[in-house]
Specification:
alpha+beta, 27 strands, globular, Recoverin, domain 1, 16 helices, five-stranded antiparallel β-sheet, about 575 residues, about 25% strand, single chain, six-stranded antiparallel β-sheet, 4 domains, Jelly Rolls
Length: about 575
Amino acid sequence: MSLQESFRTPDEEETFYLHCRAAYLSVFKSSLMNISSKQQLCRALQQAGRNPSYATLNKYWTPKTSKLNFDDFCEILKCERKIEETDLLRAFKRMDVNGDGYISHTELEKALTTRGEKMTTEEINAIFSLLDINKDGKLNYPEFCRLFVSTVERCETAALERLEANAKLKRQNFGSQSYSPPKGSVSSSAAGTSQTAATLLPSSETAQEESHITPTKGTQSTTGCFFVETDGSIGSLQYQLHIPQTTNVYLTIQPLSLSRRPDIPSSWMAVDTALFVTSAGEAKEDSTLVCFTEARDREKYVWKGELNAGSYYLLPFTSGCKLKRRNKKTTSGKAVELINRSDTEEIDLSRELREALSDIFDIIDIDGNGLLSLEEYNFFELRTSGEKCDKDAWLVCKENFDMRKNQLTRQGFMELNLLEATEKEGDPADLWLSLEAMGYNRMLELADACPFQIDVHCEAAQPSIQPVSMASGPRLLNQALQKSITARAGARALRGQESVFIYTYRGEHRISTLIANKVVSTNQKATVHVNNEQSRNCCSSRGLNVFAVEVPARTKMVCQHVLPVNERQDWTYNCVETLLPST
């Protein structure tokens, strides 16, 4: 980094990035767009007040370079000084043999054909013709330097003014993107039948450009976990987000790896995740969908844009395509031993159980501070036993187990579980109930759960996140999911019943369909036969290629979610929906 860009204060850093964005957006529509050629890099650098030579351009755009993003551009600007009037004057004075403040065509030609990056006679003639304003065969270089620098400064000022004046441009700069669904074809066939077909490229080819995070004032992170219930449904905690003032926001959700080996990721890292943001009205019924994560950056699912000051619900979601309840009978191998006994019959937790409990500790440590508050511990208790630990019981824990700042440490959590095992004289039955409730199988594999992490970055405010367990949470999530589909997809009426409509949301990484039965009569349900057999490299949240959905009158119902089985290959979604006769 040059001395010029060694930031002494946060204000200096903020000003630097503001100038970077202004220059970048003078060339590109959005800072998510990539620099795709050396010529574009040159234009962007010139907009930032640099005057790159061929050598400079070749340093950053090598034969192996195919693209540079906004972050790369900022790093280049940190290393390359802005051109100053004194620098230009010094360079021209070397060519001014007489020292009279003018350069003749002969002097310019001699300098540019014998020093540095040599130019052709044609290039020199073109340059001199452009700069010899008076057409007297001489270049008044002090005046040229002054005009050049002032023009650069005016360009930068104009770009900054555009950035400040245009709120939409500011949101583009932060990375907001308008929705543009992949192209697909829709056709109708026999009466009562509708067919939807779309071929999507592998995610490596259609993935969002790598995201960057603009320097932020506040960041808040939290963890959670999706659990597959016995009926196949998937649940998790919900969260309340508070933003004290209107600001640009960068939201992400991603699976949380608990692997102790960086080279071996956790088995659930391929599970798709999403985050739906709804307004938090005084009544739960007042909640409306604000936004949801559509873009993707590797395992992260991302939304960027502006949120007004206020409170919001964060509703985690996974489609269920890659997180399903596994049949216990399919688990091979011998069950892991949970309890060890010494020669003196002293009870201890096995190494495997301690590792599993340590992972559980990380899952329920929602604020990530390495300690369990009473509230965090109670999420574990409600999940495993259906009961809460009250404040009196927590005081007893404080007297018997390792605690810090009235919060349970990892060691204290181990001690608590050891006490419970000891009280049961080593019988692991209750331990297994707790482990299975947390998604573990008898091999101590986390099979029916997927831990996740949520990050909220705010450009001009400090956000706060609190976990909440709302009875209305599943209903709010379903409403938000339905709204996200109907708002992004047109309605297609099934032939033979003009009151039954299909909505198909086609994201780059997920396809979701919804059936709306708008029949007025309360007893006229619609039964829709769904056939995915013509789809290729697709998996459905239903777990079946052919199934039927029964939709009551005046009701909307999510039909299915579809994801690629192998994200590195093309996937073709070809679904035929047929209205079955009423019985």
